[in-house]
């Protein structure tokens, strides 16, 4: 007879149904006042690998509502209008197929969740103030209701199972939600996948004609394409057709009379993660079909197909019914072992099969024997030479509390003079310590970091000016007419009666170009003199300063290189008077490299190029150019860490009011100065991982 879990009046959900329902149920909520409370839970081991759970309440027990799922195997029991007064809300059971029990209270009900090794038959009945839950093979069909001995009257009529509404909604994260409103909260629901569709079957629930239809919800951009609502005999079925080639995850839960089934889209990352978690079966495909077969004979068949040796424990017995078509033999073996609570260990080409508890007990005994052997093993002393690492650092690692390789009797000491470890331990532990030292005591890789600091200057200046003057002169005795001279003359020399005289410069407008070249004109008339001097200056300058600090350091070690001077400056205080202090104006490179497994270099960098600036009240200022950053670069590549571009344009005009604004002639009454300067700072860095034997020029 094919093994089948009997579920008649309980509601059965898939694994995702249970997870979603549990998440909603255990949400924090203000509970309504209820006089009835759950006071204790006791369990008793029965014959035939069965267990009886007895729930004791303060008042006559209500009719419980039961839910089950198969992956993972869980049974959930709800007690309406009941408070939770258990001192311990989680208990380990470990009897039969019951693993543990968890209890929680929310709103107006108490829920108990029994974790199982696998789904099994169960029965539930009410006996006065008690609820009796029996689990195990051979238990009569699941029943919910008062026993014959119960003194509590139960209403004879119950709401008729019926679906009153079916709706579709889109969630915030793109999930498709099918929301079903039930008349009776105890309507059994079975959710499963069939022929690429998700089927929700509401057992015994009637469906109005107005709800029989197909919903085309493709435009909602969810994993759901169609929702078909139909009758299926005495039951009702909702068939969900997903969008082609879209991965999804189904989650179902029920709150009160609202049943919700969600199809959530899966990202590519989740799909890959699930593939890694799923077991990979590669064995030869076989087909097995038995009404009843001895488990030992079935294991023999699989061993013959696999062509491997198998040892089966004497405690493995019993029959099993199964039908498997075209499945890998290793998957068939996995299914058989899980269904019978068996485990398997492989040693070479031999498989050993035994109950899980027996395997755990044997491995525990082997571990205890090994520990005892370690305690009795003789100690030996050995010296381990450390070449590249520090012996003291390796000692700290070997004797660390979290990852110690030492036994309780062993010890290790360090000789700093010879950089050696002196170990007193068992032979096996010394071998492990030697292997660890061999893996860690390796040459540290080194990195050459070269930085270039480029400072470029571009200056341009243009100035135009004029000096102009008019004066009265007595020229009655001057011979030679007018005299014209050129250049920056302070005056004009004339001849009067054979003796030279000096006509001084008397400029009414004096706006020359500073330090520029010029031309001067003087005109001497009958009784007047006119002086004019035009001057202009244009300067251009370009400069480039390149600084290249270089430093070699070990992987993970900080290195600093600097060159420059310390500039003195004075500081004064009321107590100490005047003191001379120093401040650095240096070119420096501060770097901590880390070599990644793919031969890249991650660097924490600080590059600085300071210089002496202006003198302010006798103390020099420091012009600072600095960058602090973290960068990841391939070895040998050059990257620009940063740059500063500064451009200054200025235009100054000095003029005689009104006259300086006259077109064309205004240039004689003003001075124009135009300046343009550019400053550019670029910082480059190039790391190179040094190989063994590599020379740096």
From TrEMBL:
Keyword Membrane: yes
InterPro entries tied to this protein: AMIN_dom, GspD/PilQ, NolW-like, NolW-like_sf, Pilus_4_PilQ, Secretin/TonB_short_N, T2SS/T3SS_dom, T2SS_GspD_CS
GO biological process, one term: protein secretion
Secretin/TonB short N-terminal domain: residues covered: 308-356
Pfam families in the record: AMIN, Secretin, Secretin_N, STN
Signal peptide: 1-29
This protein's UniProt keywords: Cell outer membrane, Membrane, Protein transport, Signal, Transport
Protein localization: Cell outer membrane
GO CC list: cell outer membrane
Family: Belongs to the bacterial secretin family. PilQ subfamily.
Protein name: Type IV pilus secretin PilQ
Organism expressing this protein natively: Stenotrophobium rhamnosiphilum
Highest classification ranks of the organism: Bacteria, Pseudomonadati, Pseudomonadota, Gammaproteobacteria, Nevskiales
């Amino acid at each position: 007879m094919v093994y089948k879990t009997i579920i008649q009046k309980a509601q059965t959900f898939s694994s995702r149904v249970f997870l979603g329902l549990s998440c909603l149920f255990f949400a924090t909520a203000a509970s309504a006042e209820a006089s009835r409370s759950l006071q204790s839970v006791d369990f008793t081991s029965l014959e035939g690998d069965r267990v009886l759970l007895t729930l004791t309440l303060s008042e006559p027990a209500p009719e419980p509502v039961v839910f089950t799922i198969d992956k993972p195997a869980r049974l959930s029991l709800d007690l309406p209008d009941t408070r939770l007064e258990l001192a311990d809300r989680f208990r380990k059971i470990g009897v039969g197929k019951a693993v543990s029990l968890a209890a929680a209270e929310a709103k107006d009900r108490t829920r108990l969740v029994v974790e199982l090794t696998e789904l099994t038959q169960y029965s539930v009945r009410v006996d006065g103030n008690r609820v009796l839950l029996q689990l195990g093979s051979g238990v009569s069909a699941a029943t919910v209701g008062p026993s014959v001995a119960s003194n509590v009257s139960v209403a004879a009529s119950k709401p008729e199972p019926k679906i009153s509404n079916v709706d579709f909604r889109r969630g915030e994260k793109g999930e498709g939600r099918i929301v079903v409103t039930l008349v009776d909260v105890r309507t059994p629901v079975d959710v499963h996948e069939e022929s690429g569709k998700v089927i929700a079957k509401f057992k015994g629930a009637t469906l109005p004609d107005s709800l029989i239809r197909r919903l085309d919800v493709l435009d909602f951009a969810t994993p759901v394409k169609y929702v078909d609502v139909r009758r299926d005999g005495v039951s009702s079925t909702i068939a969900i057709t997903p969008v082609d080639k879209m991965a999804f995850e189904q989650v179902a839960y029920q709150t009160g009379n609202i049943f919700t089934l969600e199809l959530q889209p899966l990202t590519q990352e989740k799909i890959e993660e699930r593939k890694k978690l799923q077991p990979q079966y590669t064995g030869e495909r076989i087909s097995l079909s038995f009404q009843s077969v001895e488990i030992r004979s079935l294991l023999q068949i699989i061993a013959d197909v696999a062509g491997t040796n198998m040892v089966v424990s004497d405690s493995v017995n019993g029959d099993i019914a199964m039908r498997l078509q075209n499945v890998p033999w290793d998957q068939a073996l996995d299914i058989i072992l899980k269904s019978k609570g068996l485990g398997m260990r492989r040693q070479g080409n031999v498989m050993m099969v035994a109950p899980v508890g027996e395997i755990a007990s044997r491995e525990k005994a082997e571990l205890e024997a090994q520990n005892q052997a370690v305690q009795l093993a003789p100690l030996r002393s050995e010296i381990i030479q450390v070449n590249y690492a520090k012996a003291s650092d390796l000692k700290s690692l070997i004797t660390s509390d979290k990852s110690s390789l030492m036994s309780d009797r062993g010890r290790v000491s360090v000789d700093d003079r010879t950089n050696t470890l002196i170990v007193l331990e068992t032979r096996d532990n010394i071998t492990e310590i030697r292997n660890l030292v061999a893996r860690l005591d390796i040459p540290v890789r080194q990195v050459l970091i070269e930085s270039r600091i480029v400072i470029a200057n571009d200056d341009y200046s243009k100035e135009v000016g004029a000096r102009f003057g008019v004066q009265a002169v007595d020229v009655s005795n001057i011979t030679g007419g007018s005299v014209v001279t050129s250049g920056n003359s302070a005056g004009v020399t004339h001849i009067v009666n054979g003796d030279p005289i000096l006509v001084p410069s008397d400029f009414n407008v004096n706006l020359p170009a500073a330090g520029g070249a010029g031309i001067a004109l003087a005109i001497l008339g009958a009784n007047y003199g006119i002086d004019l001097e035009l001057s202009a200056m244009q300067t251009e300058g370009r400069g480039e300063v390149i600084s290249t600090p270089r430093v070699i350091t070990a992987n993970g070690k900080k290195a600093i290189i600097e060159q420059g001077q310390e500039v003195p400056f004075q500081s004064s205080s009321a107590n100490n008077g005047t003191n001379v202090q120093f401040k650095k104006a240096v070119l420096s490179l501060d770097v901590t490299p880390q070599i990644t497994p793919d031969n890249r270099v991650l660097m924490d960098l600080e590059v600085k190029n300071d210089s002496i600036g202006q003198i302010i009240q006798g103390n020099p200022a420091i012009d600072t150019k600095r960058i602090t950053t973290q960068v990841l670069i391939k070895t040998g590549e050059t990257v620009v860490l940063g740059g500063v571009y500064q451009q200054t344009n200025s235009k100054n005009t000095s003029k005689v009011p009104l006259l300086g604004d006259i077109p064309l002639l205004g240039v004689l009454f003003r001075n124009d100065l135009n300046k343009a300067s550019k400053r550019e700072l670029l910082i480059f860095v190039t790391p190179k991982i040094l190989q063994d034997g590599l020379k740096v020029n």
